[in-house]
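Hi all, posting the design record for the shared folder.

TITLE: backbone redesign
STEP: 1 of 1
STRUCTURE INPUT:
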């Protein structure tokens, strides 16, 4: 039986700001930009969350919900430094640490440097070590797999510690809403509810063919999760699947040359990222969000893969021809690279030929 922890720092960016500036402690704080523009909340303190302020919310709305909100500009270099300190603590204890973000990770502590047989004891000691080293709190979930550990870590935030022992899995999941299953977004949840699936118990108890009619190929995966099964390993070095950048502009873009300059800059950043990791990309994707928040993506794939900035930029700019940017104002642009490999060529000629035929989507 594996012993998995999910550790999630509490309101990380906002907590770092409150730690470093005593005047912010006890007050509603949001990390982000100017509410008069289009900035969003990067993090909200728990004092702000009581007013309904949440991450990814437009900052203007956050200020309406909480007139006394204190807005702090983000300092990501400082957050990264604290994150490195935290992950150093994790890696000193567990050989298998899988980062999910600056403030979040899975740990497999089945074997650990403390030779501690009880995962809950490892979690308690890590929580204490992080508090003493950084002055911050972390919520921990302890369970036999990643899915359950992540559920558990969010159960009693902030500074929580929740254990889902193997013998408690069925009872814990009995009334869990389907929205909490990994991979279930709003649209999938809507289809599940329409088919009469509201909880994990519904998924477990009803015929799988009914579930398949509702969600197709996802049925087997959701059924496994509803039973508390998740065999995914904790992966210390997950290979990158994509990288990119995007920007929401203070005022809508309407001039095509300006859009081309923005896209070229993002493509050059993607090329630098690929070169730093000695990777190549077959696919470049353009993301466009119009004034009315309609969002589209357009992609182009070729073989051989490349990391040449000029090639990536030209392909990304060409994708503008597959959009309506000449007629609709643009509030966001993004460029990303996908289908990564450590060589320009894929393994077989058959794959090369298939790649050569891929059109602009």
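Okay, here is what came back for every position:
SEQUENCE:
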């Amino acid at each position: 039986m594996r012993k998995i922890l999910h550790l999630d720092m509490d309101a990380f960016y906002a907590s770092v700001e409150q730690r470093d500036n005593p005047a912010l402690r006890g007050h509603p704080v949001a990390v982000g930009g100017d509410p008069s523009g289009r900035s969003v909340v990067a993090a909200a303190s728990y004092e702000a969350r009581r007013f309904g302020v949440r991450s990814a919310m437009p900052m203007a709305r956050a200020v309406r919900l909480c007139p006394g909100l204190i807005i702090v500009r983000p300092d990501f270099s400082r957050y990264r430094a604290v994150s490195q300190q935290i992950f150093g603590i994790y890696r000193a204890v567990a050989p298998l640490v899988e980062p999910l973000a600056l403030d979040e990770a899975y740990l497999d502590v089945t074997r650990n440097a403390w030779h501690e047989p009880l995962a809950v004891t490892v979690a308690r000691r890590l929580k204490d070590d992080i508090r003493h080293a950084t002055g911050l709190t972390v919520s921990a979930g302890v369970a036999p797999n990643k899915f359950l550990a992540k559920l558990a870590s969010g159960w009693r935030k902030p500074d929580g510690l929740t254990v889902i022992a193997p013998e408690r899995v069925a009872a814990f999941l009995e009334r869990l809403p389907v929205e909490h299953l990994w991979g279930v977004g709003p649209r999938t949840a809507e289809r599940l509810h329409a088919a009469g699936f509201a909880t994990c118990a519904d998924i477990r108890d009803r015929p799988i063919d009914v579930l398949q009619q509702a969600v197709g190929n996802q049925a087997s995966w959701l059924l496994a999760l509803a039973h508390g099964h998740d065999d995914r390993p904790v992966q210390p070095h997950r290979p990158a699947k994509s990288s990119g950048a995007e920007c929401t502009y203070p005022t809508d873009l309407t001039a095509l040359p300006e859009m081309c300059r923005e896209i070229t800059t993002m493509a050059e950043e993607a090329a630098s990222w690929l070169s730093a990791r000695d990777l190549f990309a077959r696919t470049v994707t353009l993301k466009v969000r119009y004034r009315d928040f309609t969002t589209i993506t357009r992609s182009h794939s070729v073989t051989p893969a490349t990391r040449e900035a000029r090639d990536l930029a030209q392909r990304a700019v060409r994708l503008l021809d597959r959009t309506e940017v000449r007629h609709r104002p643009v509030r966001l642009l993004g460029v990303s690279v996908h289908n990564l490999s450590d060589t320009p060529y894929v393994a077989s000629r058959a794959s090369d030929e298939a790649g050569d035929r891929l059109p602009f989507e």
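COMMENT: Residues 14-76 form a domain with the MutS, DNA mismatch repair protein, domain I fold (CATH 3.40.1170.60).
Let me know if anyone wants the other runs.
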